[in-house]
Amino acid sequence: MSGHTLGLVCAAAGGIEQVRERLIEPMLDDGWTIAVTLTPTATTWLEATDEVGKIEAVTGLRVRSAPRLPNEISPHPAVDCYAVVPATANIVAKLALGIADNQALTQLCEAIGGRRPPIVVFPRVNAAHAGQPAWDGHIAALTRAGVHLVYGEDVWPLHTPRSAPNKQIPWYAIRSAIESAAAEA
Ligand SMILES: Cc1cc2nc3c(=O)[nH]c(=O)nc-3n(C[C@H](O)[C@H](O)[C@H](O)COP(=O)(O)O)c2cc1C
């Protein structure tokens, strides 16, 4: 049993609809505590399919999206590791630049800046996202800051936009990266 706590951030990318069944529930079964935070767009997607309530029911924690009020306490415990799964090209760019304009990014930017807890990021991107002129710089900046990227031809070969609607997310590689990062924390 793990006994670790994961702060899981989900952005509005393909595969988000599988996160509960393919990542959250198996990790809960292995003894993890999982505190989920969604980007604003991911929140609208998962509310539309009743997934927010299902995630709260299995994790036993509120799904966060909006920032707390200054006089409120956080509804989430301290975490041993963060994972951004799936990460959009948008959240990767903002993370690399230190833009913290929603709750998910606020947590992650603080962790990157403080170099703890460790962060695993799976950019669920296509060849057009990765062809954006600033992309390589974002990946390099995150790597320099010690972020563990599940990224590259071996785990996620880039596809042309809208050509891979059912492409399988590399759940095994993501889970391995989270376990390695939490173990070194
Ligand atoms: C159906 C649909 C699927 C999308 N899939 C992806 C994706 O796989 N990867 C990605 O980077 N952006 C994808 N996007 C675009 C993002 O949702 C969009 O950039 C959004 O502003 C990201 O917000 P967030 O990063 O705050 O979650 C998709 C958009 C739609 C409508």
Automatic annotation (TrEMBL):
Q: Which Gene3D superfamilies match?
A: Flavin prenyltransferase-like
Task: List each copy of the Flavoprotein domain by range.
Answer: 9-131
Q: Which InterPro entries match?
A: Flavin_trans-like, Flavoprotein
What is the top-level taxon of the source organism? Bacteria
Pfam families attached to this UniProt entry: Flavoprotein (PF02441)
Q: What is this protein called?
A: Flavoprotein domain-containing protein
